[in-house]
Amino acid sequence: MDDSRIDFTRLSVMDALDLAVVIEQEAEERYVAFAEMIGSRYEGDAASFFQTMAGYEAKHGKKLHERRVKLFADAPIRVKQGMVESVEAPDHGSPRAFMSARHALQVALDAERKAEVFYSSALPAITDPLVQELFRELRQQEIEHQEMVRQQIAKTPGSMEPDVAPEDVDTPGL
Fold it and tell me: pTM of the entire structure?
């Protein structure tokens, strides 16, 4: 497999599972980095939500990895993290100081949508029926994740604005 990009026309089931695992790992790492970057200030804040999302991504990645091992044992992994970037991981510029939990939820929703688009856009190029089936399953899981986040948004008070009073933000004038 080419080390620079994924050729979906030649993707095997093993490679597709490895790709999905890499995508979940990247998303988990990005959420952890966001939580660390903005820091937790109280229970239920944006950092707490990013930690929760990191846990979901880790759980999903673990299930995919277990499935891969069950089917292909210890066959060498040919998909590397550098072959895909930010498929499901939230954009690097997403976190903000004092971002609200609702804003963090929106970041997660955008990431889940991005993953759904990735799997949908890859499907037409995939020739292996088993890989097509796997990608349809992964796309459906992303749709379900979106619904989960939407339900959380509906239960989360507040706005997209920073969750701190403007006078408490110590920002130098421009």
Answer: 0.79
